[in-house]
Design a protein that fits this description.
Elements (H helix, E strand, L loop, with lengths): L5 E2 L30 H4 L10 E6 L14 H7 L7 E3 L5 E3 L2 E6 L5 E6 L13 H12 L7 H6 L2 E8 L2 E6 L6 H4 L10 H7 L13 E7 L3 E6 L20 E6 L3 H9 L5 E3 L3 H8 L4 E7 L2 E8 L9 H10 L2 H9 L4 E2 L23 H10 L3 E2 L5 E3 L2 E2 L1 E7 L6 H13 L4 E7 L2 H7 L5 E7 L7 H4 L16 H12 L3 H17 L3 E6 L1 E7 L2 E2 L2 E2 L5 E2 L4 E2 L2
Parallel strand pairs: 2-11, 2-12, 19-20, 19-21
Antiparallel strand pairs: 1-5, 3-4, 5-6, 6-8, 7-8, 9-10, 10-11, 12-23, 13-23, 14-21, 14-22, 15-22, 16-17, 17-18, 24-27, 25-26
Helix pairs in contact: 9-11, 15-16
């Protein structure tokens, strides 16, 4: 094998999130620290061993198998059950974790990882080269349910075991995002023994090598994980390199906003995620509690317009939606200044984000009406446009429950588009996965993705392979494909940034999407809770967390 630079670390060079931030500090949605809290004064105290952290989640995971999980909420637990080959630091640097070091061939197609030899899974089996090969091969196996992991691992091709603790990974093409992607929780290393034992039930019987071990999952109620007493291989983002201080973490499933935050304020739980905008100020101003908020990277919450459906395959029809939907008023009225408006396919903290797009699209009903007039859609007696005997309808699909007020966005847009004669049919469903990804039964659908690299745009906007999962919008353009392909392999960071700026402009200019908001991950917690930390993608880590009396 021809090898190039030796990499016990790898620098990507981008500042992503002002994260690994302890809960002892407060930050606004723009990542600015605000004063101090009583917990900050306790920062110098020795950590306390023992205790149970109760943590309320906004939604229920669908899987605790990292390779089949498709929801961010699942990663909040997964990150504490599994470990990764590498870890990404807040400045974009990639450092060793399960892999002590690695080399990358000159052509960028071969990565050779040398692993630690002291790591064991929760079932007592060794985490070795065979386990890494098994995990990565499993992600691309057609028998594995397609999820975020499949998109992240691309362009992975195969792995080869060199010896017990050395594995060689082959890519089909060079990828500047590969190392950062395999640092994500959904590409954690799983126990081959446990996967073979549980089969499809591995999703509810997870076995990793992380600081916590799975105990039980009571559906739609709670998930319990406990301290792994043998843990001694934490990555360098943790101060505590050994077993966690907490004995147990119980994740409560509490979808209703008021109940979730009320449970923190009443002391029923010690921490809760996704603080409603109306509660942000009260939590900040109450000395008994702490608030952490930091914007996530990747793709902001975005409405994708399905161009496989008429008339949305026509640019003018999409531009009419773009001009009629008043995103600014939606974000201001629903989020009360706690969420930032999105203007681009990328979130602002992501490498290559183009700030010149900000304030570029404004509400213009005259323009929207004119565009639909040009397409031959005329208003009927009821105010709804018609053409060739058909009403102009838009099938807007959203998921239940009302996560981050997304159902409310749909209701507002329904009223806004009525002004230009579009009849919006809002469809709130729990079975959105089949409706969207299998049946293609929608005109517009909202989605987001937490990620650290602009290559996260690739699976959303590059023309899908004939046998691959179609994109949410169905758009296919050779120029855009070429830009995304170039961005994936370009080694010069400045050139890469320019490529992704072109990508963003192409997407907005062709009205493929309606960007809505940048999601800040927020946690409200009792001041008894010390040192919850957020990783580079704003997911909580509990290696260092402990409770005071």
């Amino acid at each position: 094998m021809k090898t190039g630079r030796k990499a016990s670390w790898w620098k990507y060079g981008a500042v992503t999130l002002a994260a690994i931030i302890a809960l002892t500090g407060c930050s606004s949605a723009s990542n600015k620290e605000e004063g101090s809290s009583p917990a900050q004064a306790a920062e110098t105290k020795a950590p306390v061993q023992g205790g149970e952290l109760t943590y309320a989640l906004a939604t229920s995971p669908v899987s605790l198998d990292p390779h089949t999980n498709g929801l961010a909420v699942g990663v909040r637990i997964i990150n504490n059950l599994y470990d990764n080959l590498v870890v990404q630091l807040p400045d974009g640097t990639v450092k060793p974790w399960l892999a002590k070091e690695w080399t990358i061939s000159e052509d960028g197609l071969t990565y050779t990882f040398k692993l630690r030899d002291d790591v064991k899974f929760h079932d007592g089996t060794p985490l070795n080269a065979e386990a890494v090969k098994f995990s990565f091969d499993r992600v691309i196996d057609p028998a594995t349910k397609v999820s975020n992991a499949f998109a992240l691992i691309q362009p992975y091709q195969s792995s080869k075991v060199i010896d017990e603790y050395t594995v060689e990974v082959k890519l089909a093409s060079p990828s500047q995002a590969f190392l950062r992607n395999i640092a994500q929780g959904t590409l954690g290393i799983v126990s081959p023994t446990a996967v073979k034992k549980y089969g499809e039930q591995f999703a509810t019987h997870p076995v990793g090598s992380g600081p916590f071990k799975f105990v039980k999952w009571d559906e739609n109620s709670e998930i319990v994980i406990e301290r792994n007493p043998d843990y001694k291989w934490a990555n360098e983002t943790a101060v505590n390199q050994g077993a966690p201080y907490l004995d147990k973490i119980t994740f409560k499933i509490v979808p209703e906003e008021a109940t979730r935050i009320g449970s923190v304020q009443s002391g029923q739980v010690l921490a809760a995620e996704t603080v409603p905008p109306q509660n942000i100020v009260s939590i900040k101003n109450d000395s008994k509690f702490q608030l952490l908020s930091t914007n996530t990277g990747g793709l902001p919450y975005t409405l994708f317009i399905n161009e496989r459906k008429q008339p949305w395959n026509e640019l003018k029809a999409r531009q009419a939606l773009q001009s009629a939907i008043d995103v600014t008023s939606i974000v201001k009225s629903l989020y009360l200044g706690t969420y930032e408006q999105a203007w681009s396919p990328l979130a602002p903290v992501t490498l290559g984000y183009d700030s010149s797009l900000e304030n570029g699209i404004k509400k213009d009903l005259d323009k929207a009406n004119s565009l639909l007039d040009e397409l031959g859609w005329t208003k009927g007696a009821d105010g709804i446009r018609e053409k060739d005997g058909k009403k102009l309808t838009l099938h807007y699909v959203d998921a239940s429950p009302n996560r981050e007020k997304r159902n409310d966005i749909a209701a507002i847009i329904q009223q806004q588009l009525k002004e230009i004669g579009v009849d919006v049919k809002v469809d709130i469903t729990k079975d959105y996965v089949n409706q969207i990804f299998v049946n293609d039964d929608y005109d517009i659908y909202g989605n987001s993705q937490v990620n650290a690299d602009p290559n996260s745009l690739y699976p959303f906007y590059h023309t899908a392979a004939p046998t691959g999962r179609p994109t949410l919008h169905g758009y296919s353009n050779a120029e855009l494909d070429k830009l995304l392909e170039d961005g994936a392999v370009e080694k010069d960071e400045a050139k890469r940034v320019e490529i992704y700026k072109q990508v963003q402009h192409h997407i907005i200019d062709n009205a493929l999407i309606i960007p809505i908001y940048v999601f800040p991950y927020t946690i409200a917690a009792s001041n008894r809770v010390q040192d919850i930390k957020l990783d580079a993608l704003a997911y909580p880590r509990f290696n260092d967390t402990y409770l005071t009396k």
